[in-house]
Amino acid sequence: MIRPRGGDFLYSDREVEVMKADIRLAKLHGADGLVFGALTEDGRIDTELCTALLAVCRPLPVTFHRAFDMVHDPQVALETLISLGFERVLTSGCDSSALEGLSLIKKLAEQAKGRIVVVPGGGITERNLQRILEGSTVSEFHCSARSARDSGMKFRNPNVAMGASFSAPEYSIKVADVAKVRTLNAIAKNIL
Questions:
Q1: Which positions ≥6 away from 143 have C-beta within 8 Å?
Q2: What is the distance between the alpha carbons of residues 111 and 49, in angstroms, rounded to a whole number?
Q3: Subunit structure, briefly (predicted)?
């Protein structure tokens, strides 16, 4: 994923240069595809920036990430992504999770008519994947499939938190969970 920082998707000239450098590095090191997103200050797809970044990405396939969920008008934004040549768009249906945004995901997939792959993502788990796939008619999905693992730290300072109070505990690490990946794949294979 090409993203120079957290926060919004309105980038400075310097951040754009970092994004281009990151794209070149990802390609140099054998990336199979790239993911990025950029918006204008009024919540539209930044067509000028996306065109420039897509040119650097090619010939690799490119997905527009969940910046899509922050757009002013998702139907118009989808047409813009199609016209720009993105292969995929990752979305939670402009809601807090793919399950909550399921009705819009379905509408977007129907609107796409095979011109772009709509990929639901955001809060997808083994408990809701079947409902999302059956309710949206999509053929792909994205999820983190992570579990928390205890830190190997022996000494633990209970007086310091290295971030916001709602962030992950200091002595817990999120890692890909092979069992979750296998379960999610089995669910998807049964449905798709």
A1: 121, 124, 125, 129, 184
A2: 24
A3: Homotetramer.
